[in-house]
Amino acid sequence: MDVSENTPVVLIGGGVGITPVLCMLNTLCDSRSKREIWFFYGVRNRSEHIMAEHLKRIEMEYENVHIQVCYSQPESGKDEPGPDYHHGEMVSVDLFKRVLPSNNFEFYICGPPPMMEALVSGLGEWGVPEKDIHFEAFGPASVKKPVLDQSSATESLHKVNFAKSGKVLEWKQGEGTLLELAEARGIHIDSGCRAGSCGTCMTAIKAGEVSYLDQPSASLESGSCLPCIAVPRTAVTIDA
Fold first, then answer.
1. Residues with Cβ < 8 Å from 240, sequence gap 6 or more?
2. In the chain, what are the domains?
3. CB under 8 Å, gap of 24 or more: what pairs does 81-89 form?
4. What span, in angstroms and rounded, lies between the C-alpha atoms of 179 and 63?
5. Which end of the chain is more exposed for a tag (fewer CB within 10 A), N or C?
6. Measured distance CA(20)–CA(1) in Å, rounded
7. pLDDT tens across 54-70, in order?
8. Closest CA to 15 of 38, 54, 47
9. At what angle do helices 18-30 and 52-61 cross, to 10 degrees?
10. Model-level pTM greater than 0.70?
């Protein structure tokens, strides 16, 4: 973003995708920009709503900033319209049409791939020029790449030993990633981006081999894997 411009902007963050657009918002506010600024933030409910007080303070202090928080799954009795969120729905171009005065904005988007795909496509259909639509992905998350090492599919059944949990499970094609297999059986593995970018889920491999559904962009330690995008190539034991 060129902070010296005066073009009105719409900043859109979904989940942890708030990170880059919040930086932009903070920078614009710190520079005392007079641009018209709309900030849309989409999460499921208050349990995922970060920086809530910070955003409220910005809206109170800067009259040119309009904060719009969307809860796609507000919890009854816990999440209150107004104090907690503005819209009980997902961030969408239909919402923009109802809330924004026009489509004459520059749009900056970061969020989960389905959200970004829908917004980029919808903004184009709404007549927003391509040059005014900017987006940032979580590493490889928004661009699906071919499955790596097709030889990993020669066998359809592998045993996965979760060493810390003491569970041995059978993985077969269609079970998803090692992380999804673990979660479905009540085994907790710390995770973040779920796209092989952040490295939060990095887990030691004690035996066996894995293959990856997407190219990892996080730096891998020797003898470790990223369960969020890994599938077993052989019978495998991981430290989870």
1. 162, 163, 164, 165, 182, 187, 189, 203, 227
2. 9-136 (3.40.50.80), 150-238 (3.10.20.30)
3. 84/46, 84/49, 84/52, 85/46, 85/49
4. 44
5. N
6. 11
7. 999 999 999 999 999 99
8. 47
9. 30
10. no
Rounded CA separation 176/171 (Å): 9
Q: Which two three-digit tokens encode residue 96?
A: 């923009």
One-letter amino acid at 204 equals A
240, 181 contact by CB (below 8 A): no
Sole residue written with tokens 């907690």: 84
Contact yes or no for 89/95 (Cβ under 8 A): yes
- Continuous H helices in the chain: 18-30, 52-61, 93-99, 113-125, 178-184
Q: Which residues contact 223 (CB under 8 A, 6 or more apart)?
A: 204, 205
